[in-house]
Design goal:
Helices cover 27% and strands 20% of the residues. With 81 residues, the protein is of the alpha+beta class. The chain has a two-stranded antiparallel sheet with strand order 1-4. It has a two-stranded antiparallel sheet with strand order 2-3. A hairpin with a 3-residue loop joins strand 2 and strand 3. The longest helix is centred in the middle third of the chain and has 10 residues. The radius of gyration is 11 Å and the shape is globular. The C terminus is likely disordered.
Length: 81
Amino acid sequence: MRLVVDLNKCQGYAQCAFLAPDVFAMHGEETLIYNPHAAEEQRERLARAVAACPVQAITADGLDGMGAAGTASAQEASDVR
């Protein structure tokens, strides 16, 4: 699974780090660090993290239920819960 975070869009809300801490982490108060090649076991957490990003800065290739742009809608994320 391949992840890309548009760091120009990212505002440091850290919802992704809260939902998928093995993949995303905050370095300081504003800088996001992440593993662009997340493990398959993280699929459900990643789907939630992608959907939870308030500025839609995260795209992921290889997640089921993903739209053409590579982001899950909030409705899809609530279905996962």
